[in-house]
Design brief:
It is found in: Membrane. It is a single chain. By secondary structure, the chain is mainly alpha-helical. Among the domains are: about 100 residues; about 30 residues; about 140 residues, no CATH class. Helix content is about 75%, strand content about 0%. The protein is built from 23 helices and no strands. The longest helix is centred in the first third of the chain and has 31 residues.
């Protein structure tokens, strides 16, 4: 289990790196074909990754999040479609929207999203944890049909609870409203209502964008047959995707029962839509909602037991799901996880969300980043002033630069006052870094770090002065060239003056040892699994 956890973390780190590559590179490519080719290696990686896991929860999570959703999202993104287009405002948003089954809620409708009180979700958690999982201890006394009903309820509740918690945490982290993944599917009054408006809505939207919509737009003038074929093709693709998902979980040859389940539902839903649109009898005498709800849920349950459930039951998937759920519960019980701590965490998250809502301001617009891609700097002024450690830059600007410039403006021109303010800021930063190095090394300052900032201060002042000359304004340096010179100058001077003191006092080795010790500590304390 410990190796599985390590692999799980490594996979998510690789996924974040891969999606970051797509975020920066793909939008810069002009043609759709080249953009598609640029994301294909990432898609292939995401399709292969689930094979390396042994637990069903890990395999299902990676297969669903990365293989099932991230792959079509990235393909649609390369074609300038889908939930990732237009490009999200920053990298964290892009990574979350690509890797998680979430979608930004652009026009929230409180009447729909908050139709049910919050205690309904708490009731579902209670049913799943306190009743459903405990009932499996007595399954030898339960009938087969009752167990099948429990399995169906298990799949639904575990999916909705886990996805809702992910949505809640990501919403708090990003500071934005997200669309729900489920909308009480047990209240569906038709197959169209069940699959289109209530069950696994993120997957429905992806299938609509990737399959249904292109088929409907294939011809300029679509007909009812095109609608029928688009619905049928969407369910067929969903069936094949579920067969691949089952292969990830079972490692067995597909039996195509799951595909037949979706083919049957696609045919019935297409017939249902055609019947509602073309038959005057249905339009004149609509079916009572209670009756249609009973027929819909009954049809989904019966066909699910007939075609969807046999394959996971044959290969023991439900047993493995149940055992892993019970194992996790025992694990948290052994770790003595206090419910008060959990509720306190939820309270803090709620307070943060309410404060954001009351202020009517997106939290991503309030909290500024600390770094802004410093490796893309095209000048020293750009590097130190706009990209590197921006909180420190803002503090030095307020504490040193602005006061020095105001004082100097009384006795000299504003240009010279600005240059002196810049130089004084770097001198102060150098002295502050010497103090920090003394705290860390307990060694007598050598002045090398202060000299590093003194040199950069002189060069930044010279750079700012040179930019004001007519020569530089008339013949500006190309961004690629200035970028290369800036990064090279920072690295060379840092290797010459900044790092020697760190190396002499073995700070790098001490940092790596402490990080390794910290990782081992958390792994032993938090990720301990009983043998």
């Amino acid at each position: 289990m410990e190796e599985e956890l390590k692999l799980f973390i490594q996979v998510w780190v690789s996924a974040i790196i891969s999606v970051t590559y797509c975020y920066y590179l793909t939008p810069k490519i002009k043609t759709s074909l080249l953009r598609l080719l640029s994301v294909l290696p990432v898609c292939v990686l995401f399709l292969i990754i689930p094979i390396f896991f042994s637990t069903v929860h890990s395999s299902f999570t990676i297969a669903f999040f990365l293989s099932g959703l991230a792959v079509p999202k990235l393909i649609l993104f390369a074609l300038e479609k889908g939930p990732l287009f237009p490009l999200p405002p920053n990298l964290p948003h892009f990574v979350c929207f690509a890797c998680f089954p979430i979608k930004l809620q652009k026009k929230p409708n409180p009447e729909n999203t908050n139709h049910f009180p919050k205690w309904v979700f708490a009731l579902k958690v209670f049913i799943f944890g306190a009743l459903l999982l405990q009932a499996y201890h007595y399954k030898q006394f339960l009938s087969t049909n009752f167990l099948l009903g429990l399995y169906a309820l298990h799949i639904y509740l575990e999916l909705e609870i886990s996805l809702t918690l992910i949505k809640f945490l990501v919403s708090i982290t990003l500071g934005c409203d997200l669309e729900p993944q489920f909308n009480e599917p047990y209240l569906a009054t038709s197959l169209h209502d069940f699959w289109g408006h209530r069950w696994n809505l993120m997957v429905s939207k992806i299938l609509w964008l990737a399959v249904y919509n292109p088929i409907r737009q294939w011809r300029a003038k679509s007909s009812e047959w095109d609608r029928f074929f688009a619905i049928f093709a969407t369910f067929l693709v969903s069936g094949v995707a579920h067969e691949i998902l089952y292969f990830y979980l079972t490692r067995e040859k597909p039996t195509w029962e799951v595909t037949w389940f979706f083919v049957l539902h696609g045919f019935c839903m297409a017939a249902e839509v055609a019947l509602k649109r073309k038959t005057k009898l249905v339009q004149r005498w609509p079916v009572n909602p209670a009756v249609s709800r009973l027929l819909t849920v009954g049809f989904v349950f019966v066909t699910g037991v007939w075609l969807f459930s046999p394959q996971p039951i044959r290969h023991g998937l439900m047993e493995r799901f149940i055992n892993e759920d019970l194992f996790l519960i025992d694990f948290f019980n052994q770790r003595r996880l206090k419910s008060s701590d959990f509720y306190f965490f939820l309270f803090l998250c709620k307070q943060r969300k309410e404060s954001r809502t009351d202020s009517n301001t997106d939290i991503t617009e309030v909290v500024e980043p600390h770094f802004h891609e410093p490796y893309l700097a095209t000048s020293l002024q750009d590097f130190w002033g706009r990209r590197w450690n921006l909180i420190v830059s803002a503090s030095l600007r307020a504490i040193v630069y602005t006061p020095v410039r105001r004082v100097c403006q009384r006795v000299m021109s504003s240009d010279y006052a600005m240059l002196i303010g810049v130089f004084a800021t770097f001198v102060t930063s150098g002295v502050a870094h010497e103090v920090v190095f003394f705290y860390i090394t307990r060694a007598m300052p050598t002045g090398e770090v202060a000299l590093f900032f003194l040199l950069h201060g002189v060069c930044t002042v010279a750079e700012v002065a040179a930019k004001r000359t007519a020569f530089v304004r008339r013949w500006p340096v190309r961004p690629v060239v200035s970028w290369m010179f800036t990064i090279a100058f920072v690295n060379v001077t840092a290797g010459w003056l900044f790092f020697p003191q760190l190396i002499r006092n073995n700070l790098g080795e001490r940092c790596s040892n402490e990080i390794s010790l910290l990782i081992d500590f958390f792994r032993s304390k938090l990720f301990y699994f009983p043998q």
